[in-house]
Design a protein that fits this description.
alpha/beta; Rossmann fold; 7 helices; 220 residues
Length: 220
């Protein structure tokens, strides 16, 4: 399907899939959404030094990049696993200019390193941030009790309902350690019920700009 780079409401860019009328990030603000959903309501919950994060939908690398930036601020050591079935083309990545949009042009080499690193191999992006990108379908995830936090950032249920099912959330529940969290921009009742069915304690939270609510799940 045809794709194009668009500028979102906060001035940062994302990729739009025209045939789906779907974007990799919120059209109301890509960077604002990433910080609101995954940092403020996910990463900020943790004070421990060593943290393992799973991202469902590595995509543009924006969530990973922002987490890398936060890593130094919070004095964390992060092991980050990003799962992506269809990697974004290098030509598209180069047009996003996230380091400039975030006001850290000196970190552009780190952003590029996220994308240039080999797949299915743990790579040190910084001394306190290790990345392993896994190219696979989400349904093939088999991790058990490995992660403290999951960023669930798949394309929306409107266009890919199969990614928001009890089957997928069961895999997410298994992948999390006890006392772990899963955060997502989604707020549909069907998504909340699927998360609850597999064992998550789910709360509705205020959504990012342009969205009333989002969901966060806790594994007891």
């Amino acid at each position: 399907m045809e794709r194009e780079i668009i500028t979102t409401g906060d001035g940062s860019k994302t990729i739009q899939i025209k045939g789906w009328n779907e974007q990799y990030h919120s059209k109301h603000g890509a960077i604002q959404e990433a910080y609101h959903v995954f940092i403020a309501h996910g990463l900020d919950l943790f004070e421990k030094t060593d943290l393992a994060i799973l991202e469902i939908g590595f995509g543009t690398g924006l969530n990973a990049f922002i987490t890398l930036l936060e890593c130094g601020e919070k004095r964390l050591n992060i092991s980050y696993t990003g799962v992506e079935a269809f990697p974004v083309a290098k030509e598209e990545i180069e047009q996003l200019e996230y380091a400039n949009a975030l006001g850290v042009p000196e970190m552009d080499s780190n952003f590029k390193k996220l994308h240039d690193s080999k797949w299915n191999e743990a790579v040190a992006i910084a001394p306190d941030f290790y990345l392993e990108k896994q190219q696979m379908d989400f349904k093939d995830i088999t991790a058990k009790n490995l992660f403290n936090l999951i960023y669930f950032d798949a394309f929306g249920a409107r266009v890919q309902p199969e990614l928001w099912t009890v089957s997928i959330f069961s895999k997410m529940f298994d992948a999390l350690k006890s006392k772990g969290y899963i955060v997502t921009y989604a707020a549909k009742g069907s998504v909340r019920r699927a998360m609850q069915e597999v064992g998550f304690l789910v709360e509705r939270l205020p959504g990012p700009p342009g969205k009333r609510e989002m969901l966060r799940g806790f594994k007891p």
